[in-house]
Amino acid sequence: MIPWLHDAADPLPDPHQALPKGSEAPGLLAAGGELTPARLREAYGKGVFPWYGEDQPVLWWSPDPRMVMYVDEFHLSHTLRKTVRKFARTKGREVRFDSDFRAVITACAHAPREGQAGTWIVPEMIEAYCHWHHLGVTHSVETWIDGELAGGLYLVNIGRMVYGESMFARRTDASKIAFAALICFCRAHGIGLIDCQQRTGHLASLGGREISRAAFELELPPRTGGPAIPDWSYDAAMWDLLDGPTDLHPQDTGP
Predict the structure, then answer these.
(1) The predicted structure's pLDDT at residue 228
(2) Of which family is this protein a member (predicted)?
């Protein structure tokens, strides 16, 4: 049995109480509650995130192992480097930050996923994360082609920690370009780790890897306790960091 959160006063359990491997829902920690900013902040600070479908209660997860991307381990292939460089210098093609967060999260909700018939980005979650966006906690990285949204991703940012949530692409490589832009932004602002939640082949090809839940939890306090990023805006100069960081803080390097 997993605990039920009856109201806002009920704290999330210790993540180590999540259902183990071999169970029906490994990583499931709790159910119930609401997606308030306070609850979401508590959850992400513990390495917990909501993931559920239509007609389900809010379900809270803490998987083990955890998929992460150490920013200095980002794999920039020769092909992706050429794609990004061409995109950055082609007229009518833009990278934008926070230009249309709602459009990005909505597009992510409707993007087809291999092996999934529906979406976990339900309307309640869209509204909660849009509210969090107005509070300056969630952000979008977007690729635009000739004035149309071509792809992008959205994320949660607490201190110097980034939690990648979902991405979508309507044009070839549009989401990869957005992710490369996020990597450059992280390098420019001393962010060394991006949470990717669960393993996918796509993230592994870009340099993501799995670490234990215990190792992930140790990463969180120094990063989430760091100073907030004051300005989430696009700067073309950040592309200079595409091939690698020039100065990462010691706490921003992987083990």
Answers:
(1) 85
(2) Belongs to the L/F-transferase family.
